[in-house]
Amino acid sequence: MKSRKLFICLAVLTFCAAAAFLLLSRLRVQLLPAMASDLPFSLVSSSDTSAGGQSEISVMSLQDHLVFKFELDAAFSYPYAAVGLVFKDNTRGNNLQDLTRFSKIAFKVQCSSATTLNLVLYTLDAESNNATRFENLRPSLVSFPCGARSTPVEIGLRSLVTQDWWLSEQGLPPTDTSYDLHRVYSISLVNSRQTPRSKPVRVEVDQLTLTGWDLHLLLMAVGCVFSGCALLLYTFLYAIVRSRLSSIETQPVFEVGSAQVEPDEVEHAVVVKHLQVTTKKDREKFAVLQYLATEYTRADLSLNQAISQLGINRTKLNSILREETGLTFSSYLNKLRLEEAARLLLKADGASIAEVAHSVGYNNASYFNRIFKTEYGCSPTTYRKRVNDNQTAHPLTD
Fold first, then answer.
1. Residue 289 in contact with residue 324, Cβ under 8 Å?
2. What are the transmembrane regions (predicted)?
3. How far apart are CA 59 and CA 285, in angstroms?
């Protein structure tokens, strides 16, 4: 019992540990405001001016949220304006950040006029070691709508697509669209081809957050869950085995024998059918037959009482009786009582019919006479007289 309680306590503790690891494994890093971010970065704005364009962009706020304003050059072929969060990593002396722990980036965005913007992830391929040249950075992007009302946006960090023009410039096949989240240079918000030109666009970004899972803590949580389940399963199986062994050790075993049992050697005239008790089904059969063999003389014995006492349902009890005796509960109960009554009528010469009826569970002598006559073809009085007369005419000899 103590070991069982110990295993249950250990299982509860492992489930609690699993819940704790699961909570700790959830990653959530706020990038704004910049001063409070766990991932340090510098905000860098850029436009097409270096390529001869006249697009303009300016950062208006970087406190609790990011606000910037840009206007694209209408005459330039490929106008460009962007705000980028360029990561810092002072421990390694470079600007690359490992974002493999994160799965999504989420934020709220609002634009002064409805448009479409791009979120661009600039990464450095493993083959390249120079992140100072912009041409070496792989641009992978996804588009999202931006309207006059603040709208939540959630983007999977592994669902971006590398631009075809960059693959062509690098001499890479169009199918080479994978990027390395181990080496992220920046996250940028850039105009798209659908962004209107020669029209100022004001953008507000709030609650910029990276979310994900710590794989090591998540695996520890899963391990704790499996350990807790294993402990509970072991405790459950251990209890079943102990109960089964205890039942087998304490349950008497009845084997079929050929020895004849004299009526005077048993307490009742009806002997319970011999069973070899080795299985649960056999034990249930034995319990039913033994219970009826010892309790049938109770006048208040009923099917409901037997079900309650034996702990089995009505269908199971009747099924056992039909299989073992071919009778229903009430029929088998009457058979037990009547056979015992017949035995008592022969032995208890001084007992009245009413006393015999009462001793086998019948409080109503008239009812006893009626069912006795149905079973034996004569009344109890006639049965006693006939048998006694027959024994007198043909006495038993040794």
1. yes
2. 217-241
3. 87
